[in-house]
Amino acid sequence: MKKILFLIFFLAFLVSPLLAFGDDPYDPNLEIEYQWLDDAANETEQVGTYVAYLFDFGVIIVGLILFGALIYGGFVFMTSAGDPGRRSEAKRKIIAAFLGTILLLGFYVLINEINPDLLQVSVEEPEEIEYPPLPAGPYICNFDFPELDSILTDYVSADAETRNSAIQLFYEKLKERDSDEYCMEIKTPKDTDFGYLTGSNGNYFVIPELDGGTPTYNYGVIIFAEEDGLRKSKAKGDGVICYVSTGEVTGGEIDTGFYMKSVAPIRLKPDEQGWVYLYEGYNFNDEDDPKNNEYTGGALKELSVPLGPGSKESLMTEAILGADFVCGMMSSFWSSDKHHCGIRSFEIGEPAPVFAVFKTDDGSYERCNIANNNFGDLSSLLPGSIIKGNDDLEGLTQVFKFNEIHLIKGYLMDSER
Fold it and tell me: Measuring CA to CA, which residue among 254, 216, 262, 292 is closest to residue 370?
């Protein structure tokens, strides 16, 4: 009996430090001011503190249970005189409580004295995701994208954090679109059903390349008012209504004035040297070509047009080309005051690729005939005014119809380069 009472009081002595509300059981300030969760809900560094709180509370609760088990076992033992079964059961409970107390005390000493770092739980703020650059190229969207301009402005910012936020916002806004709305990169010529590109109905924009953080806009687009516009503009005919863009377009800034039925991407080569040669005669002024003899009013003229590094394009108007290479429109028909007026062959020099968009103003829109290779005879591409009523010149092209030539240093992305 005395041994049992001694064991109960000894265990109570062991458990009592665990029941103290403080690191020092003899500290007169025994109460820890536990911080409420709603006071620091947004402070991730408090998570480790709450883990320590939970540990303290857990030790206290387990200690109380063990203490209660000791009291209960002692009570049963003292009231079980004459009942060996109850006395034996009470002993087992007291021994179990004793062993549990020893384990709890050992665990408590291990955590608080031997290795207190086990409770030092720290939660760091997750690092901001660093998004890869957006794929450079021309894009079209078939929905209103009012944030696009500011997103692309931030995207070309020199500040990496601002650029990263712009990329994140770009993808977030794309997720918010309806199921029938989409943005697509224009990689090859394709037909579209976007209608007008005015910003409210759809957007065309260019994502630049970021070479060392510096944006370079090396892409453009030709928009056509007909399906399969690129193929039709490269075949002989009156041309296809078109709109050419090689600028830094950030969305909703172009208005073609017509429905977009097809589109062709352009890859620009501004850093290379390019050349275009324009000839007054057929077959690049070949003097042996009998057709050229009909136009001799002296030596056949030749014009070389350089497109130096740093330039993307050159717009050759009648004022620049001069009367020897462009014949004007008189009244409602194209004509010339001399037979040898006009360009009859077109040649692309090296090394940079260059193509030409011959533009004709039909009074409402510009029509395009596109030459992206050499033409010894532009009659196979451009419409012309045919000479009639002259036995010597009957059937020959007097004037090819165009108002200006848009020379673009780059290539149409209809094949791999």
Answer: 262
State how far the Cα of 375 lies from the Cα of 397, in Å rounded to an integer. Answer: 15
AA letter at 36:
W
How long is the chain? 417
- The class level of CATH for 269-417 reads mainly beta
- Amino acid, res. 165: S
User: What's the rounded Cα separation, in Å, for the pair 69 and 62?
Assistant: 10
Q: Please, what is the end-to-end C-alpha distance for the chain in angstroms?
A: 100
E-state strands within 201-324? 203-207, 209-211, 214-216, 219-224, 240-245, 260-268, 274-279, 302-307, 313-317
Q: CB count, 10 Å around CB of 45?
A: 11
Which DSSP symbol is given to 128? P
Domain coordinates in residue numbering, the chain: 2-119, 127-223+242-263, 269-417
DSSP label of 67: H
Calculate mean pLDDT across residues 381-398.
Answer: 67
Digit-coded pLDDT (tens) for 56-114: 777 778 777 767 777 777 777 777 766 777 777 777 777 777 777 777 777 777 666 66
**DSSP H helical ranges for 156-269:** 160-175, 229-233
**β-strands 240-245, 366-371: how paired?**
antiparallel
Q: How many CA atoms lie within 13 A of 278 on its CB side?
A: 23
